[in-house]
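[recover] target loaded
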């Protein structure tokens, strides 16, 4: 659970790097996704969900021409070394 909360906070930090007009949408999107998965039936699926959070965050950053290396902290939290 702690790892998921750290990932969520890092995603919100990354949202601050996006253009101002997109921040509300992506912060709401992140919250909804993390809330939807807060009670996992199978805790072993957490690494996959965190990997998806990293992958999607990287995609959004590149979509808005933000340096994807900004997501390096998220990558280490999610342990996405092979992503």
């Amino acid at each position: 659970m702690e790892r998921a909360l750290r990932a969520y906070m890092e995603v919100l930090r990354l949202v601050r790097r996006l253009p101002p007009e997109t921040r509300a949408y992506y912060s709401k999107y992140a919250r909804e996704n993390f809330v939807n998965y807060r009670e996992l039936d199978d805790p072993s699926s957490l690494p996959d969900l965190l990997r998806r959070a990293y992958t999607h965050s990287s995609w959004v950053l590149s979509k808005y021409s933000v340096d994807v290396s900004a997501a390096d902290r998220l990558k280490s939290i999610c342990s996405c070394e092979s992503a």
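[recover] notes: The chain has one domain: 2-78.
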